[in-house]
Amino acid sequence: MNKSVLLTAASLLAAVTAGSAATPDTASVKNIVLVHGAFVDGSGWKAVADILERDGFKVAIAQPPETSLEDDVAATNRIIDAQNAPVVLVGHSYGGIIITAAGNNAHVKSLVYVAAFQPDAGESLASLGDSKPPAAISVKPSADGFLYLDLAHFHADFAADLPAPLANFMARSQVGLSVKAATAPATSPAWRVKPSFGIVATQDRAINPDLERSMYKRSNAKTTEIAASHAVYISHPAEVAKVIEAAAQ
Fold this sequence. Notes:
17% strand; 249 residues; six-stranded parallel β-sheet
């Protein structure tokens, strides 16, 4: 083979390799958006965010108000759009309902469900919870259409593997979840067209671990099990961050 043919072949190979590396769908994603669930706010993600940022990721925290699914998706899309780049979208608990809708945003490349609901079309937090009831006994209704967790049972039902002082502070600083949000059905689940990852908290009392397993199996999510309470993202931040980083590849 003469020298000119060899050079041409090498040039073609280099061009193909360069083109492949530049393809957005195969490139590593560096932007992470974290979405909290019911009864809490985004501050619980701090330890996970610190690990991700140390590892070179840019992290943004959505703060859905929990007033309606429409409001919560809009608040999350606002943060996704602000990144103006490919995003891994992560949701905890009710945050899984939110990311199932907000995941249709064109910037979102993959979804991570952290002890989270992963609804199909027509399903809601309420209907999924009723299908496989959790062990929790703490959910109470307010007079104005919101749900909250009884302070006396918050530690055991939501955050059993956290220190009592932290769990008690979380209980006193709850964000109420509207019944409207809890009963809103999913419409176009993003996990049907985008890859998803799921974390089962095996000691979860707020969502039945078997429900988490069945939802993640249905979606073909790459699933990781962690021996933790519903607050797995706070009690096991390194393990949760590892799953998020895998979703970014």
